[in-house]
Amino acid sequence: MGDNRLMSSEMIQFSAGNTNVDAYLAPAVGGKGPGIIVLQEWWGLVPHIKNVADRFAAAGFTALAPDLYGGKTATEPDDAGSLMMALGIGETERVLAEAVAALLANPATQGDKVGVVGFCMGGQLSLFAACCNPAIRACVDFYGIHPNVQPALRDLNGPVLGIFAEDDAYAGPDQVNALTEELTLLGKPHQFITYPGTKHAFFNDERPAYNEEAAKDAWSRVTAFFTEELG
User: Fold this and answer.
1) Is the pLDDT at 3 greater than 60, yes or no?
2) What is the pLDDT of residue 5?
3) N or C: which end of the chain has fewer CB within 10 A?
């Protein structure tokens, strides 16, 4: 994917209860666009996630990626897993709510609804956020996992686009089938795509599992989805 860092992007802060939360803001090229919350993998708010936010900005969206780990990042799976499991879900819910509010209040954000997209841990949190906040009207889940996060799917206010890998030890076919069955039972619109020959985290060009062809196709689907639902 390359480095798409934009000159207009910056770190900002917003308040969530008694905590100041850092976040990476990438305003839409052209000055104004629909808002997208970008949620990190279990590695933290690393350059890859900032790059994804900048890619959204280049595509005409205003993206905000909150730092859910308070400045901590990881490079090894054991450390990343520890950070993920230490994440307080109640506090994270407050952070996500305030992130949505901060994004909607930003002058570079167009409209009164936003989308949310997350990867790995962030994929499950994107579903969780979409179920907690009626301003979130479109949700993208990239191979979402988090054993302590159980979204109240009946409260979804918009469609879900699910992006999954064929060979995924974390979000495998059983989990994907269970999720689509529950969404179908609840009457929630959704589209799930499983990319053959891919592994978990295939979208991340900084990880060994990166699959360029699948990542490019997924990106085109995600931007088209958000354009249709938020544009």
Assistant:
1) no
2) 53
3) C
